[in-house]
Please model this.
Amino acid sequence: MNIAVCRPQVPFARGGAEIFTDELVRQLRIRGHEAEIVSVPFKWYPGQRVLTQAFLWRLLDLTEADGRKIDLVVSTKFPSYCVRHPNKVVWLVHQFRQAYELDRTELGQFSESAEDRATRRRIQRLDQVALGEARKLFATSGNVAGRLRASTGLEAEVLPHPPQELDYRTDAYEPFVFSVGRLDRAKRIDLLIQAAAKQGVDVVVSGEGPDRARLEQLANGRVTFTGRVSEAELADLYARCRAVFYAPVDEDFGMVPFEAFLAAKPVVTTTDAGGPRDVVRDRDTGRVVEPTVEAVAGALAIGEDDARRWGEAGKALAERVTWDGAIDRLLS
Amino acid sequence: MKVAYYSPLPPSRSGVADYSALLLPELRKHVDVVVAAKRRFRRFPSADVALYHVGNDPDAHGWIAEALHARPGLVVLHEYVLHHLVAGITLGKGDSRGYLDAMERGHGLAGRLLAFGVTEGRIPPLWETRPEQFPLAGDVLGAATGLIVHSRFVESRARTAGFQGPIWRIPHPAWPLPDAPSEPVAGSPLIGCFGHLNESKRIPQLLAAFDRLSASQPRARLLLVGALSDRLDGLETPAGVVREEYVPEDRLWALMKACDVIVSLRSPTMGETSGSAIRALSLGKPLIVSDVGWFSELPDSVAIKVPVDETEPEALSAALERLSSDEAARAAMGKAAHELVERDHSLSRVAELYAGALEEAAGGGVVREVVLRDVAEAAAEIGIEAADPGAGEIAGRLDEVELGG
Model:
């Protein structure tokens, strides 16, 4: 099949959605399909321009390219699913969250003006139409599917995808907790730093982001900040750590838990973390606690035996999520 | 965002007053609401959008219709037939010409002639005899910038009448269930009928059907709650009928709770929703309704629908017989009613839908202009002109995703 995988692109930014879609294309090609990324730059501000940006996708003609029929488009996140195609499947990473659960929070972007309120509603209507016309809807996590159901009434099958390919292995359960990801407030690394200080646990934090300076100040030298790491370094940190902390606010899906599990490491998360709750189960594959310093501090105190047992349980779970299975369902 | 809210409110006994009393606190969680008072409606509250609850009762809604004509806005059209309202704000104020003009606008010269017949006392008032044939909704539709309706029936009537503005279909909200226990009323089964008891509620037909049911179900009782219309004075009630006049809200619930089946018949319909039927669904009571208007749109899983034609007596008897004798069917319908209310009629959902409609009504025009201007500028910059086929294609794509209109 000729398959166009659609994703918006924020120039100079690369995150989980980009890793996921690149890997999807690679996996489709391995299985004999012609697959290609189709991308359009996306700028989500000012708010009034979001709809115009979304409409760009509607103008694309993806029925064929250079005389070759495009059999299937797989759209991933807002606004790529506004694309028009008779065989459109959506594997939803997320909607435009500022128009939904982030509205009227510090992460929202729409004011109380009549124009902003109406823009938000138009985005919701656009979702109804664009997602409603998909031949099939998948969501990367139960959290994403739940948000879709709550906001549009549309049902999506939960279809998680495997994490990026790394040299996953288990070398040891050294006494440190590892965290990896973009350093912004929504990832709540500050909660980890404060809890670790309280518990006397060593922490290694990898990644870059706008919150790094604040976090380093908060850590006051007690935390190792590695900055961005190579794939080999990342695999090594997963292989050696005792546990992995991953507790963003209401995360869509998040590949970190699966990455940790494939290294047989348990994950510490919080009750409000969203997507990770699909796979992190308290005292089974990690710890799930209230998002407070005290609760997280207690959860970080994981003995080596528990870490090994919970990590192995997570590994068994993660190994069941394969590209073979995901692509079979996607193309069914 | 601020909304100027025009509605009757308690202590008015109008159904819309009850509706607004239920909705307002929840709506205020989403938008700022300033309630317009009847006595000072001419001083329009400062707001981004005005919302007018329009129903057929001139006492409750006359001032609201007048405010709407002075300042167009979003209309909640609680019923489609507004003849009584129009008569009230014209003839009721000695404005015969206003009534004649309204009838002519709605129904042409024949309408004006009929209106003369009414004003001259030659024919009975049309709002009492056949209002459904002369709905007189045109003036309200003409002043409405958008509509909120409760049924596809009213939506369809408005579109057929030529209304081209946006329409939001929002279900009637369900009331929170009161804790009070049911009131002990004899009857096995106990069949209830609630509300103003007039001819359009098919009371004579219901009494006849109940009389037939009594032959096979001697312990059955029919509980009729509500003021009886003058025109039904002298109506004979068969044995087994229990009468209650108008009852306050808490007792209404207690009596409804006691019922096994609730009947809510209607014909002709003015396009209205039934507050009694919504209450019955909230309580998980199986319903028997007329197969008309909003009632037709209830899922078959929660209501048996009785056609309003020559088969009505037989169908109504069969429905009563079935629900009286089949406890499992009653239970299944009750379960489906609970599910329906939770899914479609929850107060929080209805308030959210209202907020969406209000926000779009207030700012949607500006947003549309921003998008269209962006697209038009980009098209013009690369030489696409209005007459080009490409422009038509762009317009079509905008319409597909509801950004065009």
Summary: Chain B has a mean pLDDT of 93. Chain B touches chain A through 22 residues (CB under 8 Å). Chain B is about 45% helix and 15% strand.
